[in-house]
Amino acid sequence: MTSTTLPNLAERLAALETALAGLQRTLEADCLIRLRADRDDAFLGQPVRLRAEVTGRLDGRPRAGVPVTFVAAWGHLDATDGSRRRGTSLTRTTLPDGVVEVVLHPPLRQRLGPAEDAALQGALARLDGIAPRPDPAGATFGALVRDYQWDVNKALRQAVDAFFAEFVANEAGGKPDGALGGLWPTWETSVTAYARNGDDPNGPAHGASVWHFAFKDWLRPWLTRYQRELEADSRYEAELSRLRQAGADLSLRFAGIATATRIFVQRQAGLAGRFVGNQASARVLHRLADLDEDIDPEFRNGLHGAAEAVAVGGPAVFEGLGQIGRSGNDQLTRAVDRLETALADKADAAALSQVDARVGDLDRSLAGKAEQAQFAHFQRQIGDRLKTVDTRLEAKVDLTEFRELETRVDGRFDGIGRDLGKRVLEERFLEAGAETAQKLESLSTAIKKKADKGKMTQLAAKVSEVREQVETKADVASHQALRRLIGENLNQLQRRVSGYDVIDGDRLLIDITPIPIGPTPIVPPGDARPGEGGAPEVDRPDAPTDEDDDRDPTG
Questions:
Q1: What pLDDT does residue 478 have?
Q2: Residue 493 has pLDDT above 70, yes or no
Q3: What is the mean pLDDT of residues 316-329?
């Protein structure tokens, strides 16, 4: 062996020792992870505690201080050290015994409170987790239904509703599928644990383990039991049977069924209870529709449609569809009525005679009307009716016949208008005459002692002129002119009596009532006798005027 061979051999041995040391460090860092759960079977909602044991691959001794990352494919992971750390991925460090634990919970959008979680765990503990198949007809599911329906058991109801909203309402069309005899429906998940060297969460993994678990879904068998109990509700089915046999209108029968269904569903407590109420009422409606073959086909189809609407959206959808249907039926009925009216109004001689007769009846009914405003209102109504008749008849009658009818109608309206105008004018003159006579007589009494004989003679002449014009039914313009003339004369007398003006423009400040029809004698003050010719004398103190010095103070 030469001297040059030994150094080469020494170098090779040193390199080999270096490689072995690195391999030893790698093997010593590598570890085994054993992942286990604290239970073999769990119901949906029950927490599962996962335990990871980390040991050395070469020596099998527990490894302390090793970071272990847990990743859940479904659910949420909680730390067990009170740190309130939670997530789908969670990293914890092994204890001196090489153990680290986390808790797996089903994924809920809103975490349960302590009271709700305790109530749920107590209810789930009564279920048989060993049975390979659920038994909705069993006593445990029946007890859970009664516990949920109990009014004071609000905590359990809220917990069940939270799981129902997460795992049933948004899954499988929202329908229970836990039928008798079927296997347990399950929610499956897997959790992977990675052991890492050092504190770097992104470093290489030195060991891994996967745990697979299936949570038994107790909700669907429980909903099946709940629904069957509600379907057996004799009160609801009896009410539907009564409405089914009722002889009322079809729309009224459906309205009654919708009301009974809404009351039945609203009696159920909780989110899950109302959901089951919808499903149970839908099944009852389907069963009622198929009860016998003699049922009205339209009513049967309506019941099936109502059942589908209730199953999907509840009684509100059923009632909404009913309102839409009634609105559509009303529109269709109105359209048919318009069509029948158009077909019935054919322009033959009989139709024209009927229209003429109806106008004649209207003429007679308006003949006794004495109020001009009412007449105008009736005239507008008849005008609208005649426009409608005109529209319908223009395409169906001969133009000459229609114009003759229009001429007859216009003539009748002109006659009605003249008659009513005359009557209104007579009544207004009667009222104006009575009011004017009363005021003039009162004024005559008041100024007996103060008006000279010449003025009273002029006043009597004017009053006579007014009576003559009223009795001959002068027109309104003449009547107004006479009112102003009378007012001017009265103002002159009044100024002489009391010293103030009673005229404001064209409006009398003294209320002058009309003169009644018929002669009413007005006797000058010198010729008046007690008890005759007007009201009794009334003493009135004189207002001071400029003429008091020239008048007789005794009157």
A1: 55
A2: no
A3: 47
Q: Is 167 helix (H, G, I), strand (E, B) or coil?
A: helix
This prediction's pTM = 0.51
Phi, psi of 553 (to 5 degrees): -65, -20
Residues 119, 497: Cα–Cα separation, whole Å: 103
Tokens 């009644």 belong to 516
Distance separating alpha carbons of residues 429 and 106, to the nearest angstrom: 95
* Residue 82, both tokens: 């009170």
Question: Could you tell me which residues come within 8 angstroms of residue 47 by beta carbon, excluding any fewer than 6 positions away?
Answer: 78, 103, 104, 105
DSSP characters over 28-80? HH-EEEEEEES-S-EETT--EEEEEEEEETTT--B--S-EEEEEESSSEEEES
DSSP state letter for 222: H
Is residue 133 within 8 Å of residue 217, measured between CB atoms? Answer: no
Determine the distance from the C-alpha atom of residue 274 to the mean position of all C-alpha atoms in its chain, rounded to a whole number: 21
Alpha helices in 90-188, H assignment, sequence order: 114-124, 139-149, 154-167
In 3D space, the residue among 330, 315, 339, 201 whose CA is nearest the CA of residue 255 turns out to be 315
Q: How many CB atoms lie within 10 A of CB 147?
A: 16
More confident residue, 243 or 322: 243
According to DSSP, the β-strands at 31-37 and 67-72 are: unpaired
Residue 505 is predicted with a pLDDT of 40
Q: What is the mean pLDDT of the chain?
A: 68
Determine the straight-line distance between the first and last CA of the chain, rounded to whole angstroms.
Answer: 180
**Tens-digit pLDDT profile for residues 351-406:** 555 655 665 665 555 454 444 555 555 556 666 665 665 565 455 545 566 566 55
3-state per-residue secondary structure call for 427-438: HHHHHHHHHHHH
DSSP string for residues in 298-349: HHHHHHHHHHHHHHHH-HHHHHHHHHHHHHHHHHHHHHHHHHHHHHH---SH
- Contact yes or no for 318/309 (Cβ under 8 A): yes
**Residue 161: burial class (beta carbons within 10 Å; 0-12, 13-18, 19+):** buried
Confirm if 430 and 514 have CB atoms less than 8 A apart. yes
